[in-house]
Sequence to fold (670 residues):
Amino acid sequence: MAQFLQYAFSGLTVGAVYALVALGFTLIYNASGVINFAQGEFVMLGGMVTVFATAAGVPLPLAALLAIAVAVLVGVALHLLAIEPAKGASAVTLIIITIGASILLRGLASIVFDKRFHALPAFIPGEAWRVGGASILPQSVLVLGGAAAVVVLLWVFMSRTLLGKAMIATAANRMAARLVGINTVWIICASFAVSAAIGAIGGILVTPITLTNYDVGTLLALKGFSAAMLGGMGNPLGAIVGGLVVGLLEAFGAGYISSAYKDAIAFLVILLVLFVMPNGLFGRAGVERV
Amino acid sequence: MNLLRKVFAVAVFVFASATVADAQIKIGAVLSVTGPASFLGDPEKRTLEIYAAEINKQGGINGQKLEVVIYDDGGDPNQARTFATRLIEEDKVDALLAGSTTATTMAIIPLAEEAKIPLINFAGAVVAADPKFKWNFKTPHTDLMACEKIFVDLQKRKLTKIAIISGTDAFGKSMRDQCMTVVKKYGIEVLHEETYGPRDSDMTPQLTNIKAKAGVQAVVNTGFGQGPAIVTRNYRQLGILVPLYQSHGVGSKQYIDLAGDAANGVRLPAAALLVATILPDSDPQKKIVVAYKTKYEADTKQPVSTFGGHMYDGFMIMIEAMKRAGGAKDKAKVRDEIEKTKNFIGTGGVVNMSPTDHLGLDLTAFKMLEIKNGNWTLAE
Fold:
């Protein structure tokens, strides 16, 4: 039982970050139809900017805000400089553009920062808490709580603010949205900004546990993408559930079956689910828009 | 026209022989200065440049100036082979100090063997010191020695039942395999094994299994990079109380920075260079490692690493062998003199080469360290 709990804690913590990355994928996909593979780089920026800002003497809360601001700026720049000029292009072209952007961001980060791994001190210092024979770090609780807070805030933003509603409208039908006077370019730009902020928050929260360096984004983007697919691309709830499930699959796979194959186990389960439910757990059947 | 050509040929010949008469000793190096293994190749290159300049300032080798040609293979064995060929055939070097990684080294060794040129390499694995390669020698410690050092310490503490958690990268895997070959010799029983991927960010599931395994008296982590730092953090988080051993792969200050307080109490084998300043004055290596550390850090403004130290050792062994051989002309003699290296005190340990041992280090080359209050201390 203690072991089971421990695997669950481990899986949920890692899964929460996957969920945030998947949520970022979902937001941009909904608003623009682009699958943004530079999503992992936002997580990296969140962690790295915070690490370097605190090292330069900036207090942690300010450093975290700075990191989010940097990620948002990069997200907006990514949209304005790379996605928007290619707006007529096919989905595959746009995906390749985001992959290129992710490689560029990684390269820049390795020069601007460095190639070493970095850690942040835990935001809530102290020993791990013991729960039913398993232990959980206060920071892990913060990651889970932070992820939950992001989800709630995002829901409020989407359903209670004009900008959020405009985003939903753009996602539903871009042409119709434009006809009722929504500046869709602006809205898509905002979706990149919000995605970047979510990614950066994940990166900041998780760095004290998992460490960070200039290329942590690659793997996170892959895992986050799998999570989004598992949950059903375009469904925010699916993204969150998908992220947590991928995290849990890895932890239980490593614990109960074999640590050597934990990634393989997770991907195998995802593939099986997608065979049975091609649109993911919460996905709608794809409708071809003409 | 024909005459003119002949005159030109003669002139070229005279010029060429003039340069030959002004002979220098040429040492070629192929190192992984950039790329994934740059943490090895970069300090090696810097060390080579610093000490080659130093030798020339002191008047060279038996009065002959030393010239060093360095190529960067970027960590790619194919490139390493190409550059080694170029050094041998075009630059016509007298000796090679080449191979930052095991992969690049294994690509270079056959070339040196064929051309009959003495080679000292800087690879980690045991195969790179196999005396069946007559012209090849190596300076860095091996994984096997690190394992044995750990096992000796375990024996001393009467901890014989262990669990191993290893990284699935080349370093972690190779060291784990080497460890398994000597467990019997030291009466160690491996009760449980776990692995983790080089990019994993959470090892609590694996460590939970180790914690649940009854009878484990110590845990050994073979790995390199950030993985061992995360293992160490997770280890403390889970409250596992038995001693944790890390490998020489984490022998840098960065490990302590990343693992933080969790690193306290961890033991690991490491080269003397890492603890230069805290070595007792009676230690034969003290003078050498402090001198190298001081010079390297003053010249490069970077913290010293054991990898640059391996180059220092290889370079000095080569230079001394050339001095004893009366220059570098007779390559076979230089090779024989390298093999006769005895009681050479380097940064990696005291080197005693022989026809059956082209590494020449014993277990005293490693110091068993324990991390206390975020600093290295000697555990012996």
In short: The two ends of chain A are 53 Å apart (CA to CA). Chain A has one domain: 2-276. The beta strands of chain A are 129-131, 134-136.
